[in-house]
Design brief:
The protein is an alpha/beta fold and 264 residues long. It contains nine helices and ten strands. Strand 4, helix 2 and strand 5 form a beta-alpha-beta unit. Helix 5 runs parallel beside helix 6.
Length: 264
């Protein structure tokens, strides 16, 4: 029997990836730690905050491109720090210019500085413009199943509901919302924001998510490179458990070795 994990790629915008873990590149102590953590994670898609990270716009300064070459990784420029549709659109267009026409982006438009929750109205407006402009949009949103379908209908190539507030490490607060989003989606669903440790990542995958994106959970750990390795294993275990199909929950015991048919 061929196991379902024998060939199980993540497909985003028609491109296959072996890893279902996407990682950010901010908050590390230096570029070397960034490189080592990304390598330990096994990630193939890495996010970069265009407004905060040098990928060539600051000549003569250390560049992320030097340690994480774009011929090895798929760059996912994001609009972190944007609080309006106009700012997000402008940032995506800058990223496309800096990365020679690269059109895969992560869109996020924040609502306020305290919670960092998404401003859904502004995000919808930005997504509509960017998609018409030829961008392949992976969109950060809240865990509302109705909104998730709206983004899918607009043409987003992936929808990325938060598990909890950005950087909170609280884990998945509303698993049934995430499950509902997954069950009704026809595009990849990736949990984004709120993951704190490997068990959080595993749970997201056990719910049927196609992947998980994280930054703070790794970069903010006491030992980021070790945590990156743990997250890789959590993603893999969660995905295999989802494909394997867990036993149903029961209120009472069910013997592993039933006595029916035994000889006395």
């Amino acid at each position: 029997m061929v196991l379902p994990t024998t060939r199980d790629p993540l497909i985003i915008a028609g491109v296959e990836y072996h890893s279902r873990l996407l990682v950010g590149t901010g908050k590390y102590k230096d570029l070397d730690e960034t490189r080592r953590a990304v390598e330990a994670s096994g990630a193939e898609i890495i996010t970069v905050a265009i407004r905060r990270t040098n990928i060539g716009q600051h000549k003569g300064e250390p560049s992320l491109l030097d340690v994480l070459p774009p011929d090895k990784y798929t760059y996912l420029p994001n609009t972190a720090g944007c609080y309006s549709a106009d700012d997000a659109i402008r940032t995506c267009r800058l990223a496309r210019e800096l990365l020679d026409g690269h059109d895969l982006v992560k869109l996020e438009v924040l609502g306020d500085e305290k919670t960092l929750f998404p401003d859904i109205v502004q995000t919808l407006a930005a997504a509509e413009v960017l998609i018409k402009d030829g961008f392949k949009v992976m969109v950060y949103t809240n865990d509302d199943p109705i909104i998730a379908k709206r983004f899918e209908a607009l043409g987003c190539v992936a929808v990325m509901p938060l598990a909890a507030p950005i950087g909170s490490g609280l884990g998945i607060r509303n698993p049934y919302n995430i499950l509902t989003i997954v069950e009704n989606a026809e595009v990849p669903i990736l949990v984004d924001a709120g993951v704190g440790t490997a068990s959080d990542a595993a749970l997201a995958m056990e719910l049927g998510c196609d992947g998980v994106l994280m930054n703070t959970a790794i970069a903010g750990a006491k030992h980021p490179v070790l945590m990156a390795s743990a997250m890789k294993k959590g993603i893999e275990a969660g995905r295999e458990a989802f494909l394997a199909g867990r036993i149903p929950r029961k209120r009472y015991a069910s013997a592993s070795s039933p006595i029916d048919g035994t000889f006395f």
